Amino acid sequence: MIQRAINAAMLKREPYVMMVVRPDGVADGAIVVAVVHALLMIPLIVDGIGILTAARVILYGLVNWILLSGLVYLIGKHFLEGDGTLPGTMAATSIGYPVLLAGLLLAPFVAPLQAQLIASVWLVATVWMAARVALELPSARAAAAAVGGWAAFVVVSLLFRF
Fold it and tell me: Of 120, 107, 126, nearest to 43 (Cα)?
């Protein structure tokens, strides 16, 4: 799975296809997203954040993944005439989530906001590839689905304070 995540971070098509065609791709995806968010919590746990708070953040990460995947699916399928399923989109977007760890790894070298921005842009790039594969969209439409889904996710997050 680690090699698959590395290939997904490099925007290779195969890991996204593998996740979409796996019968348990969504379950595997949920595990990937949960593990990524658990790893992101390690510095905070070391600093004294409670385990219960860490568990909430991991669940928050899973809800965010479902929301982002749903928005990308909605835009790609219903507005950009893609062909795919929500479970396929969820499975494909999940394999790109390990790029969020880049923010943690870059934090000692760049400002925290810059590290988060780099990780976020990289995540949108993986969502672009996921939309290409899961929704069978051409590159430009997949980019519109990824950017539109991310922008809608940010708006929804701000409105509901996720």
Answer: 107
Any idea which residue has 């062909």 for tokens?
83
Question: Do 114 and 107 meet the contact criterion of CB atoms below 8 Å apart?
Answer: no
pLDDT score, position 57: 86
DSSP assignment of 100-139 equals GHHHHHHTTTS-HHHHHHHHHHHHHHHHHHHHHHHS---H
pLDDT digits (tens, 9 = 90+) for 98-145: 999 998 889 889 998 899 899 999 999 999 999 999 999 999 999 999
Q: What percent helix, strand, coil does the chain show, rounded to 5?
A: 80, 0, 20
Residues contacting residue 151 through CB under 8 Å, at least 6 positions apart: none
In one-letter notation, the amino acid at residue 37 is H
Distance CA 103, CA 120 (A): 8
The pLDDT score that the predictor gives to residue 162 is: 57
CB 88 within 8 A of CB 24: no
Tokens of 100: 């969020």
- Residues 7-16 as b/e (b if ≥16 CB within 10 A, e otherwise) read bbbebeeebb
